[in-house]
Amino acid sequence: MNETTPTGRARGIDRVIALMDHLHRRRAPTRIADLARDSGMPRSTVYELVNTLVDARWLDFRETEGTVYFGPAMHYFGNDYLDSIDLIRKARGEVAQLAASVGETAQLCMLDGNKYLVVLNEAGRRMFRISSDVGVKVPIPWTASGRLLVDHMSPDEIRDFIPEDDFVLPDGRRIGIDEFMGDMATAHARGFSRTTGLVDRFTTCLAVPVRDLAGRCVATVCFVVPAETTAEEQATMIATLQDCAARLTFPA
Amino acid sequence: MNETTPTGRARGIDRVIALMDHLHRRRAPTRIADLARDSGMPRSTVYELVNTLVDARWLDFRETEGTVYFGPAMHYFGNDYLDSIDLIRKARGEVAQLAASVGETAQLCMLDGNKYLVVLNEAGRRMFRISSDVGVKVPIPWTASGRLLVDHMSPDEIRDFIPEDDFVLPDGRRIGIDEFMGDMATAHARGFSRTTGLVDRFTTCLAVPVRDLAGRCVATVCFVVPAETTAEEQATMIATLQDCAARLTFPA
DNA sequence: GGCCCATGTCCGAAATACCAGACTACAGTT
DNA sequence: AACTGTAGTCTGGTATTTCGGACATGGGCC
Question: What angle do the packed helices B86-102 and B231-249 form, to 10 degrees?
């Protein structure tokens, strides 16, 4: 009552949502008691929730460790989601094929609000894989894809859209807005975007835009490769990405 | 009170679970009013639920059509699930590679209770794809994989385990238990299983077991191909599957 | 045996979410 | 303009759920 209480909200469910979000943030099987403590919910409530969710297969209970984590029902629902988005459905096979044929990690990325979002990720075949989790969001300026995803915006729009802090890299370096705008123009002109040593020093990202019929970049396909990859190798990869993007850009 | 009321169950959540299951069974974006009618819940309750779930991104609301369907949060949770199961995590790339390199639909399958379950599915490159949805369950006797997944059981155990009705194919034909047992023995001896024209007349399934260290078949990798695929092509595919299964069978 | 700690269940008073149904808004039809 | 149907919101009283805390169980350790 004292807080903003939006009408028409089923607050009873907040517990479930909080619980699942908690597990998602931990990204690891968790003991029920810990769930209760860390999420601040009453122990008995969490036990009830978990019992119910395990029955529904939303969660798996691992007897041996006494922990819970996401269950198969989430996989089914997630799959339904992927299939329901036309672009993503088509891109699934394409991204898998990119990773399989080239052997490097391939991704499909989109914007989510003012962040860059990894929608699909297929790991490459390296012993030490460079790979990020699906659902990960990072600041737009940290990525090659980011330079394409906002390439329809004016400098002023970009200044408004991207938070000031997002121009600071993980190691503290700052990307100038002018530099960013320059990268963007280059990428737009060449039809691909390359960045090296941004998120970490050893990685190069190669990204190519997937555009809608209005020419707006709605997604990117990209490879994440070691920085020492040769220019010729990179050229081949970019050509592969462009073929792939072309298939996604003009769908049947 | 009048029904069995298991203690320690959070019945308030049943509404959410029912709602999501309903969407999953429909496998299509659905108008809220329809959800309410078909699931037998009060309209106002469903509106509240949907509002809350859309906020949490568990559901997407599609303005243009006035429908709801699964949202990105489900994708993230589903991915967490896949990553949490060691075998499945490893198999993701492998299955993608199978489909990409051979160009036919590849799957990872496991048992779920007494049914055969499609856990991973990567569609091949054919114009008319033979492909089933992840999460689909079918009777064990309908599939090549099924013959491997129960190959540790005795005839009596199998009779107990597989429901009588599951030996009836979609077109009404009945598979004899003896015939099934024979297939099973052959498959076990040869290290792969082949069935033709079971689920439908035009399809052949080729399956290879993924075994745990005790030698028990915990999963299969398989190709689903047109029945007219030549014997040589099939032999190559089986070799490919066996390589793949070997990598999954002896993990690091 | 006695103690401690963790997991899991149970209870009932207190809090609150559920839901029937009224209501607004808008669009199409007669 | 009146009528009908559909989409969505709002409200209040009560039936239901929540949750603090007690209880039960089962190690592990001295």
Answer: 150
Domain B11-75 has CATH 3.20.20.70: no
Confidence of residue A5 (pLDDT cuts 50, 70, 90): very low
Could you tell me the distance in Å between the CA of residue A66 and the C1' of nucleotide D26? 14
Interface of B with A in 168-227 (CB under 8 A): none
pLDDT at A2 over 50: no
Rounded distance between C-alpha atoms, residue B233 and residue B241, angstroms: 12
Domain ranges of chain A: 11-71, 83-249
Distance, in angstroms, between A100 CA and closest chain B CA?
A: 5
Q: Which residues contact B104 (CB under 8 A, 6 or more apart)?
A: B124, B126, B223, B224, B225, B237
pLDDT of residue A10: 65
CB A104 within 8 A of CB B94: no
The beta-carbon neighbor of A78 closest among B8, B78, B100 is: B78
Summarize pLDDT for A216-244 with one digit per residue, the tens. 899 999 999 999 899 999 999 999 999 99
Task: Give the tokens for residue A207.
Answer: 């990204």
We find that the CATH architecture of domain A83-249 is: 2-Layer Sandwich (3.30)
Assess contact for A38 and B95: CB atoms under 8 A: no
Candidates 3.30.429.10, 3.10.20.30, 3.30.1490.20, 3.30.450.40; CATH matching B85-249: 3.30.450.40
Alpha-carbon gap, residue A66 to A33, rounded angstroms: 10
Q: What is the DSSP letter of A174?
A: B
Q: Is B10 helix (H, G, I), strand (E, B) or coil?
A: coil
Classify domain A11-71 at the CATH topology level.
Answer: Arc Repressor Mutant, subunit A (1.10.10)
* Burial class, A195, CB count within 10 angstroms (exposed 0-12 / middle 13-18 / buried 19+): buried
Chain-chain contact of A78 with B83 (C-beta, under 8 angstroms): no
- Do B221 and B106 form a contact (C-beta atoms < 8 A)? yes
- Per the CB < 8 Å rule, is B93 touching A77? no
The per-residue pLDDT for range A29-43, each reduced to its tens digit, is 999 988 888 888 888
Spanning CA of A52 to C1' of D29, the rounded length in angstroms is: 36
Interface of A with B in 28-67 (CB under 8 A): 29, 45, 47-49, 51-53, 55-56, 58, 60
CA quadruple B117, A74, B99, A239: dihedral, nearest 10: 170
